[in-house]
Amino acid sequence: MIDLRPVAHPIGKIIVTLGAAMLLPMLVDLWHDDPHWMVFLECATITSVTGLLVVFATRGTYQSLKIQQAFLLTSGLWAVLPLFGALPFILGQPGASPVDAYFEAISGFTTTGTTAFPSLDELPKGTHLWRALLQWMGGLGIVVVAMVFLPVMKVGGMQFFRSEGFDTLGKVLPRAGQIASEMTTIYLLMTAACAITFMVLGMTGFDAVVHALTTCSTGGFSNYDASFGAYLGGPEWAASVFMITASVPFIRLVQAMRGNAVPLWQDRQVRTYLRWIFYACAIIIIYRLIYLQEEAPFGEMVRETVFNTISTFSGTGFASTDVTAWGHLPLALLIVAGLIGGCTGSTVCSVKIFRYLVLFEAVRAQIRRMHSPHRLYPLRYEGQPLDKDIIDSVMAFFTLFMLTFGLLIVGLALTGLHPRTALTAAWTAIANIGPAWGPEVSANGSVEAFPDAAKWLMILGMYLGRLELVSVLVLLLPRFWRA
Questions:
Q1: Strand 380-381 vs strand 384-385: parallel, antiparallel, or unpaired?
Q2: Which residue, of 155, 315, 354, 415, has the fewest CB within 10 Å?
Q3: 10 Å Cβ neighbour count for 205?
Q4: What angle do CA 178, 168, 50 make, to 5 degrees?
């Protein structure tokens, strides 16, 4: 029998932290004389008391987590926290169903950014801040999970990164505190710098904070129906820089903070990520210039293309224009970009650059073996050998990701959605990107008109995609519980 106390205890502490975080939007509403502040006070009380009860009921000394407990902790966090995160939406948004509230909360925690609310412009400021905080906390949480737990659990080749100085096997909880502290410092500094930059470029203080929280988490929630279209120009360039920064491995940012920036510039993932972004932007700009023969000023076209391409590549999901008007090739390219994602160990989502690089190495070696079957072709990544279990893990993850993506498309189509809507809704959910396109999607990107069955399927997709699929699906294996 698995001891659940080491799992429930940290979850209880995080629930208490979540309740304390609700006081921030409460103070914002109170400052603006909005009676909505009472909703956050009520929700903070319920959440904090529940978390404290769990903490006291499971108190003890826990020095390590078994592998089963590590899987349960990561999966449990992203299932339980949205339940409490949805409380302000259930109690404070008239007309919001429990399904919509939970959808909004899990879309925030997974940094997906898809909304189920019909109108964002009319929401109270406290609610806007709460949506942004959900994404900010989710972005930080996934960085810690990626560097602490996934390498131990050998999910999708992440065991390769145990050699990066975060060897946590057998001592997960003590190391988690140290790692979380360093990551949080980087995250806070980046968010503060982003907010200040936005204010200098013309955003109001509140808008700058909200968009900084959702930019650095690569989440994409905005407090406007027009998304980033409300702040064209300089803020788009600034957001592009910070989205890229949040998309690189945080361990490299920690090393840079310690005074050694060389590993950041030498990281193969970072170089590949920037190169692929450049290729995608160049292709789209050339297509718009030559094939569509757009008459918009060239500088505006470049800015639009760069911002929206980086937004999709990083899985942030901001939009400053209607990208579907660019034509079929750019849209297809953006969908492919979304299925690639950014770097491992960052706030981004999807398959990620590292796994594609490993796949390419494996395919290249297989082609060479066909030409010279008796030669040995050892696989390496940045000079380090790739063990067979890493390659197998990456192959399994990629296969499972694409299979789940296909099943989501079929499932969403069976709920009655238009095929295009089903495709992009599955894409945005499993890759945690944000935008969806189709006749059932509203002008502000809301999926409010989707049937509840489709929303639940998207919730499942967001949950599986954010936790790298394997760490959740392994819980369904009977031998997992017998081990």
A1: antiparallel
A2: 415
A3: 10
A4: 65
Residues 394, 137: Cα–Cα separation, whole Å = 27
Cβ atoms of residues 482 and 263 within 8 Å: no
Nearest partner of 403 among 428, 430, 379, judged by Cα? 430
pLDDT in tens, 110-121: 999 999 999 899
CA distances from 279 to 93, 138, 274, 275, 388 (A): 43, 30, 9, 6, 31
Q: Which two tokens stand for residue 124?
A: 């109270």
CA atoms within 13 A on the CB side of 432: 33
The amino acid at 220: G
Reported for 190-196, long-range contacts at CB under 8 A and 24+ positions apart, including other chains, are 190/216, 190/242, 190/245, 190/246, 190/253, 191/136, 191/216, 193/242, 194/238, 194/239, 194/242
Task: Identify the bridge partners of residue 381 per DSSP, sorted by sequence position.
Answer: 384
**Nearest residue to 183 via CA among 215, 134, 228, 145:** 145
Beta strands in 61-117 (DSSP E): none
Residue closest to 6 by CA, chosen among 62, 48, 51: 62
pLDDT tens digit sequence for 394-414 = 888 899 999 999 999 999 999
CA distance linking residue 6 with residue 174, whole number of Å: 13
Query: CA 344 to CA 146: how far, in whole Å?
Result: 8
Q: 297-334: per-residue pLDDT in tens?
A: 999 999 999 999 999 999 999 999 999 999 999 999 99
The answer to whether residues 432 and 462 touch, using CB atoms and an 8 Å cutoff, is yes
Contact 212, 318 (CB under 8 A): no
Residues 6+ apart with CB under 8 A from 66: 2
Digit-coded pLDDT (tens) for 147-193: 666 666 666 666 655 544 444 333 444 455 666 777 888 999 999 99
